[in-house]
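The material for today's practical consists of a large collection of protein records. There is nothing in a record beyond a sequence line and a structure line. Backbone structure tokens are a discrete shorthand for how the chain folds in space. Nothing more is needed to start thinking about how sequence determines fold. As an example, a complete record with its sequence and its structure tokens follows.
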Amino acid sequence: MNGILPIWKEPGLTSHDCVFKVRKLLKMKKVGHTGTLDPDVDGVLPICLGRATKIAEYITDSGKSYRAEVTIGSSTATEDASGEVISRKKVEENFTYEDLTTVLSSFEGQIKQTPPMYSAVKVNGKRLYEYARQGIMVERPTRTVQINRIRLVENTLLKKQQELSFSIDVDCGKGTYIRTLAVMIGERLGYPAHMSKLTRTSSAAFTKENCVTLSQLAELAEDSNALHKYLRPLEEGISQLKNLTISDTVASKVKNGAVLSMPEDWTADYGEPVVLTYQQKALAIYHLHPSKEGLIKPVKVLWVD
């Protein structure tokens, strides 16, 4: 079985839990996920099966969309609702829809983020959350991330006791921490804040409409025809990459992983991956040769006879 199985991950499971369950249900070893979701988070988690595991990194690196609830008035050690409250400030302003929209729009484009201590980012070969659990503070690398779009969800403003919460829809690039974004929004408004809920609404080309739950998968596992309704072709996972259609003569070389002369219609920059396609099937991913001008070389050969 080869392809992408978009799973709707439910709260309480890690991404690795989902991979383990899929392996067990489908009785296959070659299974991999495409970007970690925290246990408290639900949403779209594409699972790669068989040959599609070769393209998992491209789905991981692609754009994601989220719906998050931001709560201002308190911050936590983990920047989400699971952590210990470390700061409080009563929200006294009556923020309007326009006030919040103006602040949110200021985050669109490239922004700098410092990953939370409770995260999987490595510093000196060790995960940040490992340091955090030992009570050790280390210097964290600030990095640039891309926010393509951020919008306030209408009719979600809720004042509760000393806090204010509202929901946002975010389209973002690789490496964006939505909980850190929630904290940054709070800072811009003058309050401690945290992310109180999070759902991943899309990953690469996959949305909730494409997804199957693990409980549904358990019922479908013995029915290959029903299961294939949810199994998406490998090509959908790399549809965000540049694509070049090739002839049958070139296709035979590509299947064997040959280094090729750069096609006349090649438009990719150095290091940028391009999918070489023949008869609507992705055969391989190529990029410019790192040392030989005018040539392209394979990064991944996807075709298996």
User: Anything to note?
Assistant: The chain has three domains: 3-62+204-237, 64-203, 242-301. The mean pLDDT is 92. Residues 15-26 form the longest helix (12 residues). Residues 242-301 form a domain with the Archaeosine Trna-guanine Transglycosylase; Chain: A, domain 4 fold (CATH 2.30.130.10).
